[in-house]
UniProtKB/TrEMBL annotation, chains A, B:
Stated name of the protein: Peptidase
A UniProt-annotated Pfam family: Proteasome
GO biological processes: proteolysis involved in protein catabolic process
Origin superkingdom: Bacteria
Gene Ontology CC, one term: proteasome core complex
């Protein structure tokens, strides 16, 4: 499985993904699930993926091919699309077409293939936007009521987000929130694993403000994780029934 | 859906279930999912259920019928079974038989029916034991390595259990842990709902030590829930990345 989470806040976008891919429990590998596309100052798009690797890789390869294609226009290249809505629409269309083809190939073996994506970014002069794209190509958008989107193993890490994230959350707190949400997921589910990819996009920068790969054994992450466990246990002792 | 959780600790058993049953989002009802059977001082058995109500109710009705049947023996009545293992085996057998019949009736409508159960208890002279019974009738048992079992919507409430529950946890802390685990689930998933049923069985009592229904708006539960939210937010502020 996978866990990817994105926050859309007043101050910017914060995106985090794990890197574990598995075909059964005995076949585990590390694959990047976060892809960034940018023309700094003009446009930034981040895509995070969950689901069948054959579907997500082929979809991303097709999106990249369209970007490099000199004949591509605003309806086929996410780097030429006029709006973030159009970006989501191109990705949704490419995802659903790719999935349909792969499902068709697999039909005689009675196997399924599916994938979903989170797409976030901003175009100069436009608003920051973040979408969750379903396997069928349709999508929903993050709003002030629900400023976060999750794909993959989303349940373990949801309670902390439900409690602390609002559109007014600072970028520093937002990074802490997604890392703690990931920490809960890593602890409770083997199919989500380190390293992690964290990207931060400040509002109106139209560029990746910071991007970081957090490796297994990263001292800052381990310290935060231990401090959170200790704080939770302290809180547990303090609360009375 | 449902959320039921049981802890098997050195000091005793703690069991908690919600009561929400739904057929779609627009058909929600309240049904007890915790059933207790006891001959105080001699034997206590608690069964918690998740899954299709038709399967769980019919299974429980058959178990109750066998208890009342004068012809029943240790292989058919859970109140006559010689060991908790035999209790689990009778329940597993009854569950899988009931499920098979109902699935057969539904086959032409291409519908499924399934259910799982947690069974916990003690017989005088025996050990406390707790089992998770699968729809097929086979089961696993709680151990010192994994002193809790969950059925239904188990993911939201697992991180807190993973962090605080060990076999040495006190009975008071255990009740707090299951209630906080339920609180996280209630907040993040509509298909789990109040009221709650909480049962406590102290070691070697071979009887229900305490049993309580916690209603919507229960002031103690609301206070605990608010204190936990506040403590989590405090912890969140304190932890640094």
């Amino acid at each position: 499985m996978t866990y990817c989470v994105g926050l859309k806040l007043n101050a910017g976008l914060v995106l985090l993904s794990d890197t574990r891919t598995n075909a059964g429990l005995d076949n585990i590998a590390c694959y990047r699930k976060m892809y960034t596309f940018e023309e700094p100052g003009e446009r930034v798009v981040v895509v995070m993926t969950a689901g069948s690797l054959s579907v997500t890789q082929t979809t991303l390869a097709r999106l990249a091919e369209a970007i490099d294609d000199e004949m591509a226009d605003e309806t086929t290249s996410i780097m030429k699309a006029q709006t973030m809505l159009q970006v989501a629409s191109i990705i949704g269309h490419t995802l659903s077409r790719t999935r349909r083809e792969i499902v068709e190939q697999m039909r005689e073996f009675n196997q399924q293939a599916s994938a979903s994506m989170i797409v976030a970014g901003q175009r100069k002069g436009g608003d920051m936007r973040m979408f969750l794209i379903y396997p069928e190509g349709n999508f929903i958008e993050a709003t002030d009521d629900t400023p976060f989107l999750q794909i993959g193993e989303h349940k373990y890490g949801k309670p902390i987000l439900d409690r602390v994230v609002t559109p007014a959350t600072s970028m520093a707190d937002a990074q802490k929130a997604v890392l703690l949400s990931m920490d809960s997921t890593l602890r409770s589910n083997l199919s989500v694993g380190m390293p992690l990819d964290l990207a931060v996009i400040e509002k109106d920068a139209c560029a990746i403000t910071s991007k970081r790969r957090i490796l297994e054994g990263d001292p800052d992450f381990m310290e935060m994780s231990a401090a959170w466990s200790a704080a939770l246990r302290d809180s547990f002792v303090k609360v009375s029934i």
